[in-house]
Design brief:
14% of the residues lie in helices and 39% in strands. It is mainly beta and 147 residues long. It has one domain: Immunoglobulin-like (Sandwich). β5 and β6 form a beta hairpin.
Length: 147
């Protein structure tokens, strides 16, 4: 088991949080949810449900990314019973960047670095009590990270 696997196992045993960036079980393994079409990938990941803006999402992402290959993002959901946090990049060939799943009672917080292909919107969505809430921010990329 690698370092990431050991860390995930330890986090799962501590009862604090269990998160993974895996494909949703509703999506067939031969067709990834991030097909390059942002509206389609968003609809597929949210199972056709809409999302609404919420102040219960703390979303930190730079408005100007000098290097699109390493853009830091932090998302925290203050909403009760958060089950998932998803991160999307509108202009990436694969718009779904991450899909984190949480155990009941866990603090829904993630921090990651992503690649952004070009200037566009970055969206963080939280699933709480069967509804989707999010926050969207425009990020200007000076040097692309996916090309």
């Amino acid at each position: 088991m690698g370092l990431c696997g050991a860390l995930m196992a330890w986090l799962g045993q501590s009862g604090t949080v269990w998160a993974t960036s895996r494909r949703s079980p509703d999506v067939p393994p031969d067709k990834p949810p991030s097909s390059g079409n942002f509206p389609k990938a968003l609809s597929q990941a949210l199972r056709g449900q809409p999302w609404q803006a919420s102040e219960g999402i703390r979303f930190e992402v730079p408005q100007l990314a000098e290097n699109g290959a390493i853009v830091p993002i932090a998302v925290e959901s203050l909403l009760p019973n958060t089950r998932r946090i998803l991160v999307f990049a509108e202009k990436n060939p694969g718009p779904l960047l991450a899909d984190f799943h949480f155990e009941p009672g866990a603090d829904a917080r993630v921090s990651l670095r992503v690649k952004l292909n070009e200037t566009g919107s970055v969206l963080a969505v939280s699933e709480s009590e069967g509804h989707y809430y999010g926050m969207q921010t425009a990020v200007r990329v000076m040097v692309g990270g996916c090309g």
